[in-house]
Amino acid sequence: MTQSHHPTEITLHRERRMLELAFDDGARFQLPCEYLRVYSPSADVAGYHNKTPTLQVGKEQVNISDIVQVGLYAVKLYFDDRHKSGLYTWNYLYDLGVNYAQNWADYLARLEQAGHRRQA
Fold this sequence. Notes:
By secondary structure, this protein is α+β, with helices and mostly antiparallel strands. The chain has a single domain (7-112), classed as NE0471 N-terminal domain-like. It is 28% helix and 28% strand. The protein has helices at residues 33-38, 43-46, 90-98, 100-113; strands at 7-13, 18-23, 28-32, 64-70, 74-79, 87-89. Strands 1-2-3 form a 3-stranded antiparallel beta sheet. The protein has a 3-stranded antiparallel beta sheet with strand order 4-5-6. The N and C termini lie far apart (42 Å).
């Protein structure tokens, strides 16, 4: 059985483009909006019907414009680039936090393989 994680605090730091999350087990993560955007669980990003995820480029300056809780299990993040699909479940956000370093390295490697460079 998968352990269920629940946030105790969700804080958007707009000026830093960072979402801070604290969970009931004491874990705390600071996740960049760009990271959350490129790892959106939406079908158009994650891939339809188990297809390869769509590489997101040019998201360095993206920010979250709104956060709406969905039931007792998720939030919907609205980004200022008009992306607003995909539900970020508590467990998915926790997983993004725990695996940030590996996921970010994978994203940067995919960008490089595709010939893209992040803007500073």
